[in-house]
Amino acid sequence: MNVTNSKTRGKALKDIISGILSADAFPFFTAAVVLACYYLGWDLVTIYYLAATGILMLLFLDDLTPLVSPLTFLHILVSMKNTPTHVYDNSNVFYTQPYVLAQIFAVVGLYVAAIIARLFFMGRDRYFKPTPVFWGLCAFSGALILNGAFTKGYDFNNLLFGAVLAFFFLGVYVLISCNVRADKRNYVKLAWGFVAFSLALAVEVAAKYIANGADMFDGNGEIIKNMLVFGWGIWNTMGMLLVISIPIVMVIASYYKHGYLIIFYAAALAVAAVCTTSRQAMLAVAVVFPASLVAACVKGKNRKAAITLTSVLVLAVVAVLIFKWKTVWRLFNNVKDNLFNAEGEFTGNGRTTLIQDALGYFFGAPVFGQGFHVNYGNDPGFVGLDFIPLMAHNTFAELLAACGLVGFIAYIVHRVQTVIFFARKPNVNKVYVALSIFALLLMCLFDNHIFYIFPTIIYSAILPFALGQTSEGRALLNRKPRYGLSAECTIMGS
After folding, report:
1. Per residue in 153-192, pLDDT tens?
2. pLDDT given for residue 384 in this prediction
């Protein structure tokens, strides 16, 4: 009787914890905690909170879709008080202090232990089916580890940074894809997680404008982008995160009677992205926001309402272009002046020089490249930690310089594989997530977000949802798990 009662209580406790962590509202609680700690400068509290929620999810949830949310919030945990960036203060050593590093390493160790425990309790009958996408990621991860191999004066930091990138590209993808069901309920859960995440971003942007007031603008009424610096990133980083959130939140339009109202929120995110003054974000918004609206109009739950709202937005944009044409024209000219010099030559705001430097490194070591840790004098940098190298601000140029033809070809193969497997049995859910990934990759033609670790985590976590899964994998995942911690495992995209 006591054993039975103990088992019953244990199951009840597991159900309660699982119910809380899986709730659609839980990411909003996480957003509140992260925002509060950001403004209070309690970075360690955020780290402990995100680690604790992640570990509990690993140990108690059968489906790990809710884990994507805390993984995403990792990106914005660094506060202005403790940021190591040199933009405001070079002297902040919070993240290099031994007692801070010791706690971070301890938390990471517990996280890894939870992953191992989850895999162990899944039992021998855990189903793992390697797929072309998996093997392609293995090859790309191997190329990242080999960055700069056999070059004269090889820097050990290349191996360390490449190994970390490889772990997050491959490890996060495998962990999520092995433990999620790509069904309608989970796409909605993923969308609510990004609503909460993007809401936190929008709050931080609004707070900057409110706190700085008129100081946000110069004498010509132009936004001063240097005022949009956050503890965890600059205007380009904020713009990138806002833009990749837009398509995913639009998933909600497909499943709720009044889900079309999310169009208003997506439009607000688009405006917030423009307000970051990030040119790459503006370009990506101009592509993925209209595409997301089209998807909502074609496949939304209430297509008539979605079409009506979209028409209203189009009219609003036209009205702005007509009545504020001087402002729009001035913005266009500012963008043009930043991309072209006085002689009309394209400079990409210094990016062409970075790409030329990258190609120089590539020709010096065309097979494995010269590694991530080479000198890009024209990259102003931001992070403030030597572990994160300066980069070429273009995915392909960076790969050629750092990993040579080995890394470049491996990435192209991975990219082709993802397109092929996305195209298999396409549906509107996969389209929304794929648009988010496309937005990230588009912006990475002008920056190196995907190699800055935290965006790497986001990319790898949502990639399985863009690829979907076969009916075979779905059947396996729907079987009742023997050990209670996880369902049977299959790699997405098979």
Report:
1. 888 899 999 999 999 999 999 889 888 888 889 999 999 9
2. 59
| Span 229-256, average pLDDT | 93
- The amino acid sitting at 4 is T
Sign of torsion over alpha carbons 428, 180, 72, 416: negative
Residue 6, number of CB atoms within 10 A of its CB: 10
- Continuous H helices in 324-377: 325-339, 351-364
Contacts of 87 (CB under 8 A, 6+ apart): 226, 229, 234, 382
Angle between helices 235-249 and 454-467 (to 10 degrees): 20
Q: What is the 3-state secondary structure (H, E, C) of 203-246?
A: HHHHHHHHHHHHHHECCCCCECHHHCCECCECHHHHHHHHHHHH
DSSP 480: P
Question: Which residues, 6 or more positions from 444, have their beta carbon under 8 angstroms from its beta carbon?
Answer: 394, 395, 450
Question: What does the pLDDT average to over 101-105?
Answer: 94
Percent of the chain clearing pLDDT 70 (strictly above): 83
Q: What is the dihedral of CA 379, 216, 324, 271, to 10 degrees?
A: 70
Rounded (10°) angle between helices 279-299 and 235-249:
0
Rounded Cα–Cα distance for residues 184 and 492 (Å): 15
Question: Which residue type is seen at 273?
Answer: A
Q: What value does the mean pLDDT of the chain take?
A: 84
Distance between CA atoms of 270 and 242, rounded to whole angstroms? 7
CA distances 344 to 278, 338, 340, 347, Å, are 22, 11, 5, 9
Cα-Cα-Cα-Cα dihedral of 380, 386, 392, 397, to 10°? 180
For residue 128 the two structure tokens come to: 């793992």
The better pLDDT of the pair 71, 379 is held by 71
Q: How far apart are CA 58 and CA 45, in angstroms?
A: 20
Beta bridge partners of 233: 230
